[in-house]
Amino acid sequence: MICAPNPDGEAKAAAQGDAATGPDWADLTEQAILDQALRLAASMGWSDQLVNLAGKKAGLSLAETNLLLPHGAADLAALLSKRHDDEALFQLNQQNPSALKIRGRIEAGIMTRLAIAAKEGQAAHAWAGYLALPHHLPLALRLVWDSADMIWRWAGDTATDENHYSKRALVGGILMAGLAADLASGEASAKALVAARIDNVMAFEGWKFKARPLERLQAWGTGLAARLGQIRYGSEP
Question: Whole-model pTM above 0.90?
Answer without folding.
Answer: no
